[in-house]
Design a protein that fits this description.
Blueprint: H1 17-26, E1 31-35, H2 52-68, E2 72-76, H3 90-94, E3 97-103, E4 109-117, E5 125-131, E6 134-137, E7 155-162, E8 165-172, E9 176-177, H4 192-205, E10 213-214
Helix pairs in contact: 1-2
Length: about 220
């Protein structure tokens, strides 16, 4: 379906690091993908897979292979619910680049962000779409961030910069009168503290009474 079966594509179902290392050294590979680093183990180290000693030693060996054999090595790691790399932080400190691949399961859009890059900027992003044929570059990225419907109340269009890329975004807001208790302040995709600051500015500078409204 993805049309990705190639003669020079090699797959190995293995978590024993010495076996993986021997396979990498047996051929002149252009690139290598490890999925995932937390599941690999070396029998020479007396600790469980995913421990600091296991991750540190295997990552060091991968770095040595990348430099001595001129191989681009991609190490995939697990992500916690908070959005950080699971396990010991030593992995982030050792590698040359840290990339986050984000996406909403209900949408085709995928975003590649760089949080660490020893050889270039970290402000740029890559936008992709998940199609039937696989992952493709999103050429008209701005159209993915806002609806093309007629203007409506509570909706506004803005332009933001992500690196050197200008994106058109749609901001939606809903304000309703609070019937009882303290008003609620909820935001999706916007920092709640920033939302409270904007509400305070609207009340102070524009004299819009929002102290009795849910936002």
């Amino acid at each position: 379906r993805l049309d990705c079966i190639e003669k020079e594509l090699y797959l190995l179902n293995e978590i024993n690091w010495p076996v993986i290392k021997a396979n990498i050294e047996s051929e002149n590979y252009f690139a290598c993908v490890i999925d995932s680093i937390q599941t690999l183990y070396s029998p020479e180290i007396s600790s469980a897979p995913g421990s600091i000693s296991q991750v540190r030693e295997i990552t060091f060996e991968l770095m040595r292979l990348a430099k001595t054999r001129d191989i681009a090595i991609f190490i995939i790691g697990h992500i916690t619910k908070e959005g950080s790399i699971a396990g010991p932080r030593v992995l982030e400190h050792m590698v040359d680049s840290v990339l986050y691949f984000e996406g909403d399961p209900s949408r085709e859009l995928r975003i590649l962000r760089s949080f660490k890059n020893r050889f270039g900027p970290t402000s740029e992003i890559g936008l992709f779409e998940m199609k039937e044929q696989g992952l493709v570059s999103a050429k008209e990225a701005s159209s993915l961030f806002f609806s093309k419907e007629e203007p409506m109340e509570g909706s506004a269009i803005t332009i933001t910069l992500e690196g050197s890329r200008a994106l058109i975004l749609e901001i939606q807001a809903l304000v309703s009168e609070c019937s009882f208790g303290s008003p609620k302040r909820l935001a999706n995709g916007l920092d709640t503290n920033r939302l409270n600051m904007l509400i305070a500015l609207l009340e102070k500078k524009l004299e819009i009474p929002l102290n009795r409204h849910d936002v």
